[in-house]
Amino acid sequence: MEMANEKSGGLLASWSEGLKAKISKIMAKVIELFKKTKKLAKDDPRRVVHSLKVGLAITLVSLFYYFEPLYDGLGASAMWAILTVVVVFEFSIGATLGRGLNRVLATFLAAALGFGAHFLADLAGDTAQPIMLSLSVFFLAAITTFVRFFPRIKARYDYGFLIFILTFCLVSVSGYREDEILKVAYRRALTILIGTFIAILICILICPVWAGDDLHSLVSNNIEQLANFFQGFGVEYSNEWKEDEGIVEGFKSVLTSRQTEESLVNFARWEPGHGTFKFRHPWKQYRKIGSLTRQCAYRLESLNTYLLAESQTPLHIRDQLKESCSKMSTESGKALKDLASSIRTMTLPRLPNPHIEKSKAAAKDLKAALKIRPCNSSIDLLEIVPMATVASLLIDSISCIEKIAESVGELASLANFKRFEVEKSASLKFQQEQQQKLATPAIVSGHCHVVTID
User: Fold this and answer.
1) Which residue spans traverse the membrane (predicted)?
2) Which residue, of 324, 332, 355, 444, has the greatest Cβ tally within 10 A?
3) In terms of pLDDT, which residue wins out, 263 or 71?
């Protein structure tokens, strides 16, 4: 008996410990989920507001089911209003308008063509009617599906073409068995129109989220991320370069922003004029600026890789190039900061940008310093390659910054950015600096290798 009691007591204890362990794991996962949810809401509080807006819109259209007078007028077709809100309501106004207009236009056009196909099939007689309807569905669905492959169509109207196929099939096919097809189609079209209207109205009136604002901020922030890297490199180059996770992650985020940027451009083009953005604002120009910004970010990614290897270059060579590299990087960062500020504040950029001119002057000095005259063969050429590559990438990045500056200037011209008056003292100071000859760094001597960057 005692042994049996001991066994049962041991089993009970082990079962209790296992249960406690499982409860602890579940609690840990619940706490982790709570932290992730809190972080998600904290990162962008608009997500919480959007969720509440969707809930409100669905609740409003559900009233067509709850109130008898509304239900009598629309019947079971009221469910289409709820479905419309679910599929149309998006995070931004541009995305909601795009989906809503696509759905409404596609529904009415497809319904009209469906009635036309049904009418022609009726004229053909009872025997040929299903054949005519089948052929119309086949050809229209095939042609519409093929048209969806066009890039421009897919970018803006893909959802509309999808709804077009669905609506045409519903009207033409269901009309074969449904006697009151006109009444049913009218109710469905009306409920879709009501659902779209409610979704758009709530999206605009309650805490509106404009895709154009997000795009504007994204492009300026991406340029600023590049500026932070250049300025960080200019300050730290005098010492041994070490990766700053914040700066590196910043410019790497630029490389992954293409899909978000493309979506925002398409959504912004659906939006009406708002705030400082007028109707037909040149949103496509942001795509060009973003593309050039990513090209510069790719160079910075390569530059960061070589910087770690370049730290193995002999210090007496690095020291003679330090001043030009630091100055070129610092001035490039300042130029990008100016461009980011110009976009953010919607003011005309300074063209030509004085910081770009200074970085180009520093690049000339760097090219001169890299022309090493033959004297001695005491240095290994492999030790110079990382340094020369870093210098080449820095010089190449200036051309990218110039293109970004030109694109920002085009955006400022197209969008009628307001003028920014440069202080006279600053302008005079820049002219004086341009007239002065910058001191050329000492040429590295005592080595027989020649490294030239054109």
Assistant:
1) 48-67, 79-97, 104-121, 127-147, 159-177, 189-211
2) 332
3) 263
Q: What is the 3-state secondary structure (H, E, C) of 223-239?
A: HHHHHHHHHHHHHHCCC
pLDDT band with cut points at 50, 70 and 90 for residue 325: confident
- Report DSSP letters for 302-353, one per residue: HHHHHHHHHTTS-HHHHHHHHHHHHHHHHHHHHHHHHHHHHHHHTB---SS-
- Kindly indicate the confidence band of residue 320, based on its pLDDT and cuts at 50, 70 and 90: low
Q: Helix, strand or coil for residue 44? A: coil
Which phi and psi angles does 29 have, rounded to 5°? -70, -40
Rg (CA), the chain: 33
As a whole number of angstroms, the distance between CA 111 and CA 109 comes to: 5
pLDDT digits (tens, 9 = 90+) for 71-128: 777 777 788 888 999 999 999 999 999 999 999 999 999 988 888 887 888 787 777 7
DSSP 210-269: -HHHHHHHHHHHHHHHHHHHHHHHHHHTTS-----HHHHHHHHHHHT-HHHHHHHHHHHT
Reported confidence tier of residue 441, pLDDT bands at 50, 70, 90: very low
Q: Please give the backbone phi and psi of residue 281, each rounded to the nearest 5 degrees, phi first.
A: -60, 140
The three-class DSSP label of residue 53 is: helix
Cβ burial of 198 (10 Å; 0-12, 13-18, 19+) is buried
Instruction: Sketch the domain layout of the chain as residue ranges.
Output: 47-205, 211-419
Q: What angle do CA 330, 334, 338 make, to 5 degrees?
A: 170
Q: Which CATH number fits domain 211-419: 1.10.1660, 1.10.287, 1.20.120, 1.10.3470?
A: 1.20.120
Distance separating the N- and C-terminal Cα atoms of the chain: 95
Cα-flanking dihedrals φ and ψ of residue 133, to 5°? -65, -40
Vertex 75: Cα angle to 74 and 80 (nearest 5)? 75
> Whose CA is closest to 160, among 109, 200, 211?
109
- CA nearest 343: which of 405, 426, 422? 405
Position 186, amino acid: Y
Q: Rounded CA gap, 390 and 393, in Å?
A: 5
CB burial string 418-438: b at 16+ within 10 A, e below: eeeeeeeeeeeebeeeeeeee
CA separation for the pair 190, 203 (Å, rounded): 20
